[in-house]
From TrEMBL:
It is an enzyme of class 6 (ligase). Its cofactor is Mn(2+); Mg(2+). It comes from the Bacteria. The gene is gshAB. In the N-terminal section; belongs to the glutamate--cysteine ligase type 1 family. Type 2 subfamily. This is Glutathione biosynthesis bifunctional protein GshAB. Gene3D superfamilies: 3.30.590.20, ATP-grasp fold, A domain, ATP-grasp fold, B domain. It comes from Candidatus Enterococcus murrayae. Pfam families: ATP-grasp_3 (PF02655), ATP-grasp_6 (PF18419), Glu_cys_ligase (PF04262).
Length: 753
């Protein structure tokens, strides 16, 4: 099989970088002081027996984070970062993840190490067996399992260039077996570059049989978590591989197939025998230590290098018969694993040859990656830059445990710095990020179909839901959001149903609207676009208004929409009622954008100070929006006889907006428990009339402490089909209302979230 020639075919080249990735990352849970925790698996995480993302490995303290299959490096890292965030913020606040592959200080007595408390008795029995066979201490070592699949289009194109195999499945099997043999032969290079478990301490060994000096990777050496020497398996063909595994199980050298701890596993079915029917779909690389200098244990450069390395394994030829080739690789791998991390490798010449050939491959196949190859090739001549050497340097400077605790705390602080965001998906709307967080936490599979359009697919068992913008779901009819997007129609529908709404008129041209000035000039009124949300283009006039200011308000509104509404201003306080499935889940008082004077600084300076709050950001990706100083704000200041360079008196509150939207810089205050039930029922009834399942409806209430009795006790000024949830989850003042969880409960009642 001349794969080098096959890969050089013009019809193959466009697919060479096509691949699918999956990452399983293990981590021990420790206290913020670096001590192994005594607590059980986090209770906030959904049932670990079916959880697709967060499970328990050998011990109760050992998390296993599992990404879905991804088709790009950025995508797989985004999911890993998100799952990492969810896991960290689901743990008790005084716990963090240990960043090293080697565990923290373990209990003196091995029986104090808790085996995972799983529901299936068979799973517990298997872990007890492993504890007896290998010892609990070795089981506490963590690492990365990297799943890699060549793109299906790539494999198909390679298949079409050859004539040796008639079956696509047979071709894939032959291809992946070659990869497995080459990986076992050359895997030492990954250990040299990314090995990061250099210290052999009592926490890991039960005897004195251990290296006396630091090494590159205890975990990947024969001292590591490997099978006993009498377990031998051939990689010559899938048939021999399967037969040898079955023989080892039959002879009692392995309890079952999954006890075979090879550096690479063929995947495609639950058992190896299944591979004869399914074919080998992907391989699992199991020799990668945690990168303690990266928050999630692996970074983009490492993944991209592994991808190029996997292409090299496909491109290069074997030099010896299968079993000899693998045996030579095992010997070299163990030698490199046990080398001193700060010293050059004895296999420097072969390493240089591999890099030279990888660069030649990249040039011939027109692949990107020259800079990446140069970066890691330098590490061959500078072993001090490898991960193991850097870990050793930290140990020599301050001790491994101190250094690991500092790194763990740094990553812990990063996870908690902005708890309203979800790493990996920060550019999405905040409500969508919070929905993704809750879905991942509770074990609902979440796939982002379109980041820009905020489209997410949720899956639990056979139950699938599509969600847009965090709360637009299949539970609403198509007409409901269209109705609420049209403020004129919304008012008509509500008024005809008997609800109080402000009187007003809709204008389709600025010329016609200007002629209405005499009708509104002497009373309080509002100018707003017909079909926008987030308070865009709204101007409120509470007293006698000049024609200049009236026309300015019209210009602002018409800049946002082709039609504009001018309506009466209803006196009272505005409240946002969040209604979902005939229940009011939250009520928010929103205070318009404002600053408090100190008698020294200008309004512009006070705004800058308030905007420096980390809770404030732009484009709804923070709980509060930054206050702007645009035309609307300056018009509001003008009505108060102020400018942006004015200096307010001490404790003087200056409002920069009439409308109280958080999206225009307002403050959010939760008042759910303070609002009389009669107003909540009004909100529920109004949303039902609009035919919506989820809506944010804005009520003006002059006196919230007075129960609703007469029409003048309230007014409905707006209904929103995609109400922001993050302002309820992270209010400026008051209790958090986790509305994204309410959305999931609504969509998945069978889960009892």
């Amino acid at each position: 099989m001349n794969t080098k020639k096959m890969m050089a075919q013009e019809k193959v080249k466009p697919f060479l970088l096509q691949a699918r990735y999956g990452i399983e990352k293990e981590s021990q849970r420790v206290t913020l002081n670096g001590d192994l925790v005594q607590t059980d698996h986090p209770t906030l995480v959904g049932n670990r027996n079916f959880h697709p993302y967060i499970q328990t490995d050998f011990s109760e303290t050992q998390l296993e984070l599992i990404t879905p299959v991804a088709e790009s490096v950025n995508e797989v890292l985004a999911y890993l970062e998100a799952i990492h965030d969810v896991a960290q913020r689901s743990m008790p606040k005084d716990e963090m993840m240990w960043p090293l592959s080697m565990p923290p200080i373990l209990p003196e007595k091995e029986e104090a190490i808790q085996i995972a408390k799983l529901e299936r008795h068979a799973d517990v029995l298997y872990r007890r067996y492993l504890a007896r066979e290998y010892g609990k201490r070795k089981q506490m070592v963590s690492g990365i399992h990297f799943n890699f699949e060549y793109g299906l289009d790539l494999v198909r194109q390679l298949f079409l260039t050859q004539t040796e195999e008639a079956s696509m499945e047979d071709f894939k099997t032959r291809l992946y077996m070659k990869i497995a043999r080459n990986f076992l032969r050359y895997r030492w290079l990954l250990t040299y570059l990314f090995g990061a478990s250099p210290l052999s301490e009592d926490r890991y060994f039960d005897s004195e049989d251990r290296p006396k000096e630091p090494v590159r990777s205890i975990r990947t050496s024969h001292y590591g978590y490997v099978n006993k020497p009498d377990v031998q398996v051939s990689y010559e063909t899938l048939t021999r591989y399967s037969e040898d595994l079955a023989e080892n199980v039959a002879q009692g050298r392995l309890s079952e197939e999954k006890e075979f701890y090879a550096p690479i596993r063929m995947r495609g079915g639950k058992k190896v025998a299944d591979l004869f029917h399914t074919g080998i779909r992907y391989v699992e690389l199991r020799n990668i230590d945690l990168n303690p200098f990266d928050r999630v244990g692996i970074d983009a450069d490492e993944i991209e290098f592994i991808h190029l390395f996997m292409l090299y394994l496909l491109w290069t030829d074997e030099k010896l018969p299968a079993d000899e080739w693998v045996a030579e690789g095992n010997r070299i791998s163990d030698e490199v694993s046990l080398e001193h991390p700060a010293k050059p490798t004895a296999h420097l010449a072969e390493g240089q040859r591999i890099f030279t050939e990888m660069q030649l491959m990249a040039d011939e196949l027109e692949l990107d990656g020259a800079d990446l190859l140069k970066k890691y090739q330098v590490w061959l001549d500078r072993p001090e830059e490898t991960l193991a050497a850097r870990v050793l340097a930290l140990d020599e400077a301050e001790g491994q445990d101190v250094a690991a605790t500092k790194l763990g705390r740094k990553f812990y602080d990063q996870a908690w710095a902005r708890p309203y965001q979800l790493a990996g998906f920060q550019e999405m709307e905040l409500s969508t990020q919070n929905l993704l967080f809750d879905a991942i936490q509770k074990g609902i599979e979440a796939e982002v179909l379109d980041r820009q359009d905020q489209f997410v697919k949720l899956q639990h068992g056979d139950h699938q839901e599509l969600v847009k913008n965090g709360n637009m779901t299949s539970k609403d009819t198509y007409i409901a959001p269209l109705l609420m997007a049209n403020k004129t129609v919304t008012k008509l529908v509500l008024a005809r149903a008997g609800f109080r709404v402000p009187d007003g008129e809709t204008f389709s041209s600025i010329e016609a609207a200007k002629k209405a000035y005499p009708r509104f000039a002497q009373k309080a009124f509002v100018i707003k676009p017909k079909s926008t949300n987030y308070g865009l283009g709204i101007t409120i006039f509470k007293g006698e208004t000049s024609m200049t200011d009236f026309n300015a308000g019209l210009a602002i509104a018409f800049a946002e929409d082709d039609e504009v509404i001018i309506e009466e201003f209803l006196p009272g306080t505005e409240y946002r009622f969040f209604v979902i499935d005939h229940q009011v889940k939250a009520v928010l008082l929103r205070t318009p954008a404002n600053v408090i004077g100190d008698g020294e600084r200008t309004i512009e300076e006070l705004v800058a100070e308030k905007n420096a709050d980390p809770l404030r950001g732009l484009n709804h990706r923070s709980p509060l929006e930054k206050i702007q100083l645009g035309d609307l704000e300056q018009l509001m200041l003008k009505e108060q006889g102020l400018r942006i360079d004015s200096v307010p008196e001490k404790d003087q509150q200056v409002f920069l907006r009439e409308n109280s939207n958080v999206s225009t810089g307002g403050d959010s205050i939760d008042v759910t428990d303070d609002i009389h039930e009669s107003y909540k029922q009004l909100a529920i009834d109004a949303v039902e009339v609009l035919g919506a399942s989820i809506s944010g409806i804005d009520l003006i209430i002059p006196d919230k402490d007075k129960p609703y009795e007469v029409h003048e006790d309230y007014g409905i000024i707006e209904a929103n089909f995609n109400p922001m949830m993050h302002m309820h989850i992270y209010p400026y003042i008051g209790k958090s209302r986790r509305l994204t969880l309410d959305v999931l409960r609504f969509l998945y009642p069978e889960m009892n979230i």
